[in-house]
Amino acid sequence: MTGRPADSNPWSTPCADPDMKLDGDLRADVVVVGAGYTGLSTALALREAGLDVVVLEADRAGAGASGRNSGHLSTTVGNPAKVLVRSLGEEGARTLFRFSDEAVAYTERLMGSLGIDADYLANGNIGASVHPNHDARLEAEVRARRALGARVAFLSDADMRSRGVPPAFRCGVLHEPGGVLHPGKYVRGLYDAALRASVRVFEQTPVERIDDSEPTVRAVTPNGVVSADTLVIATNAFTPSLGRLTRALIPLRVCCVETEPLSTDERAAIGWSGREGLSTTHSIAESYRWTPRGGIAVGTRIVRYARNSALSTKGDEAAFSVLEQALRMRLPMLTGTKIAARWGGWVGFTTDTLPLLGVGGPHGNVFHALGYSGHGIAQGTLLGKLLAGRVLGKRDELTAPFERKAWSWPPEPLRWIGAGVALGALQRLDARTDRKIAALESHSR
Ligand SMILES: Cc1cc2nc3c(=O)[nH]c(=O)nc-3n(C[C@H](O)[C@H](O)[C@H](O)COP(=O)(O)OP(=O)(O)OC[C@H]3O[C@@H](n4cnc5c(N)ncnc54)[C@H](O)[C@@H]3O)c2cc1C
């Protein structure tokens, strides 16, 4: 498929059987399209309920965002509390925070029950202020979220310093549940578990067309057709390429870089012994984490949309250099440290940054869960299981916020123009914040 980057993704954990392509026609109870967290979690839950499940994956399991993200297993939701209350109502916002907690807890339980060793460090994640102007806003947001039941705590400057968090990260909001994991090992663990459970997973088998005109739905691939009572779309950012839900979400390109392993001196200089995941209060956050290889990974900050939802990697080099500059600015003790890996991936973004779960098709048997807007490790894992429940006719109160009628993205070229203007404005705002931080620093020297 198009859009696959030639990069140095350090999380890559190739799956077991490189020749597992579909060759011939098959029948199953459910066919799942996409083998990332969502598809594999759905398949595992359906199999546990005794259904015969086939998973079709265009590339290798985990080749999408699930095998190339930053690994923050977090309860974070993208929007401020007051925006959530405006869009979901107070009860809906409370349900969302309960869902976020359960999503992390479920992912932890799943890794435990399936015996997945994903180098998981359950040390929480901190959303950190990077400029004095952000401090009070962050503290107010913590109060608003706590009032809605979120498990967050405010960390003052003194709290951050006593945890050893580097000084560029001033005060913070601690998301207690969660931590950081190895995304590739996690998705590989789900894949192995699916094979053990006798889910039939076919890789390098792109679904070219979904035919849902008859009650038996057909997933058409180059060398065979899978017919099933139900089809699950678990292709997240790639869904518009499949010709489905083209107004519901857009693919955005996100990049990351990772340093080489730090020396003993660099480790001592950086501190940060708690190894919490960090993200910043920029309009488009930067994320930071220790990696299992002993380096620091930084991600996001720049996101890009290409016209017609094309999966274009153009602009990755510029994004890598912005990330590298951000790393040197936030962690100046690493000025001489080399970058060892650079990579990018696709996130599926909805108009209100909340995921969507639903069912469509003329026979009501084509289900989907997608649009995690950059927070899909926990959300995709739990929504996969809850989606399996929906296929089996069960409803869970936690899915209520995601079964809403969301605003659609406008058609092209308005979408491309709008995304360009909005993302450009946010990036300029963030560049201004960084200029102010630099001015403050030179003033205090
Ligand atoms: C750089 C980056 C950093 C991120 N950091 C974080 C983070 O720290 N924390 C967090 O929670 N989230 C993060 N995310 C988001 C998270 O990775 C995603 O939300 C999550 O992986 C989505 O999982 P998924 O299974 O729904 O989709 P994906 O993992 O994208 O899987 C979709 C699969 O469908 C396959 N596919 C596509 N089209 C077809 C077709 N026609 N036929 C068959 N198969 C098809 C793809 O090859 C892919 O394997 C990040 C994402 C990126 C890119």
Query: Largest sheet at a glance?
Result: 8 strands, mixed
Summing up helix and strand content along with how strands pair, one would put the structural category as alpha/beta
Please give the count of helices: 9
Q: How many strands in all?
A: 18
**Straight-line N-to-C gap:** 52 Å
Shape: globular
What percent of the residues sit in helical stretches (DSSP H or I)?
A: 25-40%
State which percent range the strand residues make up: 15-25%
Which oligomerization state do the chains in this entry correspond to?
single chain
Overall mean pLDDT score?
A: 95
CA radius of gyration is: 21 Å
Order of helices and strands: EHEEHEHEHEEHEEEEEHEEEHEEEHH
Low-confidence stretches: 1-5
The small molecules bound here are: flavin-adenine dinucleotide
Q: How would you describe what is shown here?
A:
The chain is α/β, with parallel strands linked by helices and 445 residues long. The protein is 34% helix and 22% strand. The protein has 9 helices and 18 strands. The protein has helices spanning 37-48, 81-114, 132-147, 157-163, 183-196, 264-270, 316-330, 376-391, 414-444; strands at residues 26-33, 53-56, 72-74, 125-128, 152-155, 172-175, 178-180, 200-202, 209-211, 217-221, 224-233, 250-259, 277-280, 286-290, 296-304, 339-349, 356-360, 366-370. Strands 1, 2, 8, 9, 10, 11, 17 and 18 form an 8-stranded mixed β-sheet that branches. It has an 8-stranded mixed β-sheet with strand order 5-6-4-13-14-15-12-16. The chain has a two-stranded antiparallel ribbon with strand order 3-7. Strand 13 (277-280) and strand 14 (286-290) form a beta hairpin. Helix 1 (37-48) packs parallel to helix 5 and helix 2 packs across helix 8 (376-391). The longest helix has 34 residues, at 81-114. The chain is globular and about 70 Å long. Residues 33-39, 56-59, 63-66, 68-72, 206-207, 234-238, 242, 254, 256, 287, 299, 344-347, 370, 372, 374-378, 380 line the site of flavin-adenine dinucleotide (FAD).
